[in-house]
Amino acid sequence: MKRFVSLLAFGALSGGLAWSQPTTINAQTTTKATTTTKKTTSKKKTAKHHYLLVMGHGAGDPGARGNGTSEAVYLRNHLMPHLAKYAKKIKKSNVTIYNPSHNIVRDTLVFHKGSYKIKKSTTVIMFHLDASTSAYAHSGHVIIHQRKPTARDVRLRKVIKQYVGLNPAYNGYSFRTNLRNCNVLRKRGIDYSLIETGFITNKADFKHLNKNLDKIAKGYVEAIANEKIK
Ligand SMILES: [Zn+2]
């Protein structure tokens, strides 16, 4: 394009109609030649892996309550915008968020949609906050879908440990098979993790959450997608 423009400018100077036409043809031939020699070894593109982030509860189910808020509200109004911001920066995979006006458990167990309709190749990450009648119960853990944590679970645990602290009862991981929505995923062979970032009922956890919300979200998205965000 550059060459074509400079030739035209020269043409305007010398006022030559006679050669402005051949120049155009020349430029076209050159472009054609390069395109045909190029595209013979184009590889078939493989689809990017899909990670689905799910905010717990919602659609009328507040989840746990504490520190003047509820799980459903805190996850959607505070954590989710930060997660969405970093999800957009991931290049090697697709990170999306489950419709926040829905409650995946209800979609699954009441309407036979939700976890029943998720593609088998999708990885599901569910976000929750823990609760206890004891104000002292504190810190977070990852609920895992196999006896051994996956590499992703190890990365997620690190984020919780760094910004909130690990629940001493679990030392970071809990393998559970009594969560009905999760069991639908398990039976369908879908990879998932459920994150309890901390106790909504604990003052110190709530403080750590609010203070580190952006770093936590960035850490989580990086851990999930296994990609550094610049
Ligand atoms: Zn919950």
From TrEMBL:
<protein>
    <submittedName>
        <fullName>N-acetylmuramoyl-L-alanine amidase</fullName>
        <ecNumber>3.5.1.28</ecNumber>
    </submittedName>
</protein>
<feature type="domain" description="MurNAc-LAA">
    <location>
        <begin position="53"/>
        <end position="226"/>
    </location>
</feature>
<dbReference type="InterPro" id="IPR002508">
    <property type="entry name" value="MurNAc-LAA_cat"/>
</dbReference>
<feature type="signal peptide">
    <location>
        <begin position="1"/>
        <end position="20"/>
    </location>
</feature>
<keyword id="KW-0732">Signal</keyword>
<dbReference type="InterPro" id="IPR050695">
    <property type="entry name" value="N-acetylmuramoyl_amidase_3"/>
</dbReference>
<dbReference type="GO" id="GO:0008745">
    <property type="term" value="F:N-acetylmuramoyl-L-alanine amidase activity"/>
</dbReference>
<dbReference type="Pfam" id="PF01520">
    <property type="entry name" value="Amidase_3"/>
</dbReference>
<keyword id="KW-0378">Hydrolase</keyword>
